[in-house]
Design goal:
The protein is α/β, with parallel strands linked by helices. It contains 8 helices and 19 strands.
Amino acid sequence: MTDLTTAGAPARHRARFHDLTVADVERLTDESVAITFTVPPDLADEYVFEPGQHLTIRAVLGGEEVRQSYSICQSRATATATGTLRVAAARVPEGRMSTWLNDVVAPGDVLEVMTPLGSFTCAAAPDAARHHVAIAAGSGITPVMSLLTSALEEEPRSRATLLFGNRKTSTIMFLEELEDLKNRCPGRFHLVNVLSREAQDVELFSGRLDRERLERIFAALVPVASVDEWYLCGPFGLVTGAEALLQERGVDQHHIHHEIFHVDDGTEPKRKIVVDEAAPPEATVTVNLDGRTTVIPMPSREESILDATLRLRPDAPYSCTNGVCGTCRARLVAGQVRMDRNYSLEPEEVEAGIVLACQSHPVTDEVSLDYDA
């Protein structure tokens, strides 16, 4: 291993963990909670966020470190005014972090929370008169709450529509807040709840929010040509199906913003590779992180670059390790890598050399990644 300090201008620091105190835990549904953190004034600048971004929470559960990302679910104005950050967590079967957050965490607890990350964002245009439309299902509503409320608050001439799929009324996260948003923004916010396991008066809104139903909703309520920005968030099938439909309708890819919460693409995430650290390296990776350069020998190219990096640089950022959250993104400076899967980077980011360390494997003998670029 070689560890050097890069000379020259100060490095741009990567997202990092800080201790934040839980101010409130609010029950949203039987299986979900909203958790509000107090942000101390001296950390306020570090926790400035773009609507749609997420926070990664780190905890030791059952003797093992667990990390999970949760989307910010409040508007930028509310966060600034209250000095807080709010995320929501829906219970996931066998999910250690989500179960802990739902059942154990209480006001006054202190949690390790990473500063905001994520590219599921859209720059505000205060003078614009835009139509923002979100298609979400289940807990996919969490970043959408921040995106749409911020758009309505920061763009007074814009409007928003939410097509929101759930099983039944009792499982709808933020139901009261969404109704309040309709009252606060009359004529500017349109909410369409689609329920798959509960009959509604309008047949169009009863069933799964699938391609066929989206086509009917577009025809009846939301002409595709009337929309300026699209936000897709939820399970793999919903997001990819809606994205394909919009592309077929001629929507510019740059105006389709998406984030996948649960991946079920028919493939299994690769298991962690056990390596013999004493074996001769098959490749060498040089990592620049927080202004320090570390040279990392990799005994096997089947191991992910993230796993190899963590042996020598445990401060390297990561969360889901499944190619979904984007926390481990870095710029490829030299060499070539292959990624197993990618559900967080946009095509233009990949073209610009951004990779996910958790999914990357060396192709060339030498690879260089820069987390600070």
